Amino acid sequence: MGRRDCSHPASSTSHVHHHHHHHHHNHGHHDHQYHVSSSRPPPALPVAISAENDRPHDHIDLSWPFGKLEGLDQDDIREIAYEVFFTSCRSSPGYFSNGTCCADGPGPGPGPGSGSPCRSGPGSSARGSSGVGMVANSRIKRGLGLKTLKRMPSRRTSSGGGSGSTPSSPSAVHGFAVAGGGGNNNGGSPGGAGSGSFSFTVPARSLPTRRPLTSAEIMRMQMRVTEQSDHRLRKTLLRTLVGQMSRRAETIILPLELLRHLKPSEFNSSQEYHLWQRRQLKILEAGLVLHPLIPLDPRNTFAMKLREIIHATANDTKPMDIGKNSENLRVLCNCVVSLAWRGSNSNGSSSSSSSTDHPTTTHDHHVCHWADGYPLNVHIYIALLQSVFDLRDETVMLEEVDELVELIKKTWSTLGISRPIHNLCFTWVLFHQYVVTGQVEPDLLCASLVMLTEVANDNSKIRGSDREIVYVKTLASALSSIIGWSEKRLLDYHAGIFSKASTGPVMENLLPLLLQARKLLDEDIAATIAARQDQQGEELDIQVPGPCETRVDLYIRSSLKNAFTKMLEAGNISITAVDIDRAMSETLIELAQATEELAAKEKETYSNTLKKWHPVAAGVAAATLHDCYGDMLNQYLAGVCTLSNDVINVLQRAGKLEKILVQMVVEDSADCEDGGKAIMTEMVPYEVDSIILRLLRKWIEETLRKPKDCAQRAKETETWNPKSKAEPFAQSAVELMKLAKETVDEFFELPIGISEDLVQDLVDGLERIVRDYTTFVASCGTKQNYVPSLPPLTRCNQDSKFSKLWKKASCSIGVEELRQKLSESHHPRTSTSRGTQRLYVRLNTLHYLLLHLNSLDKTLSLSPRVVPSTHKRCPRSLGNGNSSSYFELARVSMQGAVQHVAEVAAYRLIFLDSNSVFYESLYVFDVANARIRPAVRVLKQNLTYLQGAILIDRAQPLAVKEVMKAAFDAFLMVLLAGGSSRIFSRTDHAMIEEDFESLKRVFCTSWVGLIPEDEVEKEAEIVEGVIGLMGQTTEQLVEDFSYMACERSGIGVAGAGQKLPMPPTTCKWNSSNPNTMLRVLCYRNDQAANTFLKKTFHLPKRR
């Protein structure tokens, strides 16, 4: 059967009816039972395996995708894999006979127990029709496109003697022999149980003969298992199956049985037994605790006890005593059995049915789960599949692969392997073998592609919610590993990974393999994950590569870039500004010649193959090389200060190379619809104008370093002390604007045509510096740094400590004397601190920057040297379409900074500098004796000082306006958040209203022209509204508050007995705000307000 005939999935298993089993059972003892006879001497040992083959392939960079197993190495996995395999196949027909590979040998045919599949693909096995001692024509190898030996004697023979024990014959273990196909073999399906027979024969001496190895012997040698280990395994199974020969393999907890039945005396030393015991316990821990199929409750007592036993054994210098009647053995068995027989409902059983297609999702109550959890099961199964490669030539698959794979599938039920997972693992094994054998056998790569097609077929049949999470994770991990290794090669295929002879075969198989794997990963798995997340709301932590429209394009570009980089390294070419001389110019000319030769090699060797997957492969290569050389040319020109003959020669050679590469694109794009325009668009021409442009931009970059350094120095040294009264701004700003003007003047003195694009490049650089400096000037904190925190809400109490203090003070020293003490802070004097003055210097500095920035903008806009661009671009700094300013973004940034600094300075002046005469003393103890006149007087003096000594004219209007806002906010803070030292009565309303009018007059009359009167009135509306609330009766306040509180909270009108909601504090006070009304009531000194607040909100008394 040829390769094209394998149309079915690779791992299809046989489905045979049960009525065949009885017939086969009746003949099994007579026809297939194996005995060591006098005519068959013991077989010879296989060729010794070198230590090098036994080591992991650490030098390869193919990542292992199936997770890690703590405490278990490759030898451990191989050992347990062989043990599982042996146990699962113990009842398979002919497993222990020498007719394993002979379908038509003496005796009855394969029968129903043979596991012969009904349908097969590349990964399925089928028995050939060769005679005894002849190798079957492997169907798997033919399906995979691998070389097959036809009708040749098997190379795997063993010489035996009459008295010796064969390494894998049943008689080697106390005459243990198993019938070829007895018992309930479940139709040869994976994991099916069968019965064997035990016979004790007396070997007789005979002359040495040669015989084919049995499947058991082949597998033992392939798995590198010693005769002693094999002997112990057979002895354990013999003891375990006494009286229950029909016991199914998946019900045998193999490590536990080994621990139970093997004694220290059966090992060479106590240390060997101790290490062996540790391995068995580690396997139990991996299968039952660390990676169980059914999720394990962390509080499971059996798991905790099993961990204790394992850790105790690992830390002990002697092996654990697990004699027949030991307590340790009893506890260990109890823990292991309890954990292994857990069902999905944690009671040891499950109602799910067993299936060979999806065993990992079922928890059959007839199967104990000790080795079917991920990734332990995949580790074991991979080890089994890897055994099909010849140890003497690891690029060759054994001719007995059909029989071995069929027997390996017997482990499915024990390991929880499904057909899709089998195909996936087989794909991985084939690809892994290709990699670790040095990529010398392209047929293995071809076989990997065939199996990957089977994986895609499986994947298409189990889309959506039918997918298991374990399968999706396994598939994603395996494909990601294959993709990672393959892409690393294809991203640098010029590096010599392909010989000239193998370039075609390898590229023709590796590239479609990679594309198929990426397509499967990107489309199918991503779609499945999205569907599962949408349907079940699950978050699956699976990383998959992002989509890419043309991977081949990426491989071409990356490989040529790497090849170009290696040319530079080989020629030790490194262009820097210091190296620019005649020698460097000659080097760049030679590099152009080498680039031309590389393009020719790409076209001749690779482009024809790559064109199958990319219509313009050679065109992409040419564009890539054009870009690479262009980068070097740009680096060269970056160090050129003036044009010279050397520079001209470099440009001429670059132009010649460009013509060759463009012609290569045109020829390769002849059949494309766009004629190669898309590729041509990528190729930036090597033009003289672009060179001049780049040189000029380099000049701009270097010239802007001076103002940039100036701005940076200012951040470290600026103190915000004005040089003189005539220049009340920062000296760093003066220096910065001077350098900016010099830069613009020098720019227009250059003897070249200056386009608008070049002007915009200069503006962008200047603007970045100015905006950075503006941010530094505005870094002065916020107004919240100076506003006092709000005190807690309380209710006025005539018996409070404050009232008692007031009465006591009045009685002891008299009212007049107390008033004198309260007015000690009322003697006005200028209180503008140094810190506040520095803030206003910052404000002056920002206005100075704005003034000079406008001057620069005018110079640039009106210069006759600017040549309009044919493709005029919109300046990046424009803030809106109607503005023609070059520095619009910087101007907007500066205006925001001016507003911020003026606000911070005003709040510092009012809440810090004037705190003693304003917030700290206004209306303290009582209104009549702590009026606003002292605060107004200090405020006037401070404003006069700022106007006359600090602020420049342009800064004064905004500065005074912000002081007004801060003063009004402070007045509101006194009324609504003044703390326990302030109480108000309704009779205080007139005095408070009069005081606020005095405060308003400071800004309306004293600073004519700075703030329009209507703006003052607008800012005063909120304060006047609050003062109006203070003139209302308590009853009216309570009524208005109740209505507004209910309306703002959305409950409407409060019913009888309904509790009023506490309004939130927003600090945006006004007369209709419930929180504002509540604060007026809190500071109202009468019984009605006190009672309302107590009953409604249980506010505490003022102390």
What is the makeup of the main sheet? 2 strands, antiparallel
Kindly estimate the percentage of residues that lie in beta strands according to DSSP: under 5%
Low-confidence stretches: 1-58, 99-135, 151-155, 160-207, 344-364, 543-549, 810-815, 876-882
General shape: flat
Helix run count = 38
- Our measurement of the CA-to-CA distance between the termini, rounded to an integer number of angstroms, reads 102 Å
Q: On the 0-100 scale, what is the average pLDDT?
A: 77
Strand arrangement in the largest pleated sheet? 1-2
Q: Could you tell me the radius of gyration in angstroms?
A: 46 Å
Concise summary:
The chain has 38 helices and 4 strands.
Characteristic key phrases:
4 strands; 38 helices; mainly alpha; 1103 residues; two-stranded antiparallel ribbon
Description:
The chain is built from 38 helices and 4 strands. The N terminus is likely disordered. It is mostly helical and 1103 residues long. 53% of the residues lie in helices and 1% in strands. Helix 18 packs across helix 21. The strands form 2 sheets. It has a two-stranded antiparallel ribbon. Strands 3-4 form a two-stranded parallel ribbon.
Topology:
Blueprint: H1 19-31, H2 51-54, H3 74-89, H4 139-144, E1 157-160, E2 209-212, H5 215-222, H6 227-240, H7 254-261, H8 270-290, H9 301-315, H10 327-340, H11 376-385, H12 401-408, H13 412-415, H14 419-436, H15 442-461, H16 469-490, H17 503-536, H18 551-570, H19 582-605, H20 607-610, H21 617-638, H22 645-668, H23 677-682, H24 688-703, H25 705-717, H26 731-748, E3 754-755, H27 756-777, H28 801-812, H29 815-822, H30 834-862, E4 866-867, H31 888-913, H32 933-950, H33 956-976, H34 989-1004, H35 1013-1030, H36 1034-1049, H37 1074-1082, H38 1087-1097
Parallel strand pairs: 3-4
Antiparallel strand pairs: 1-2
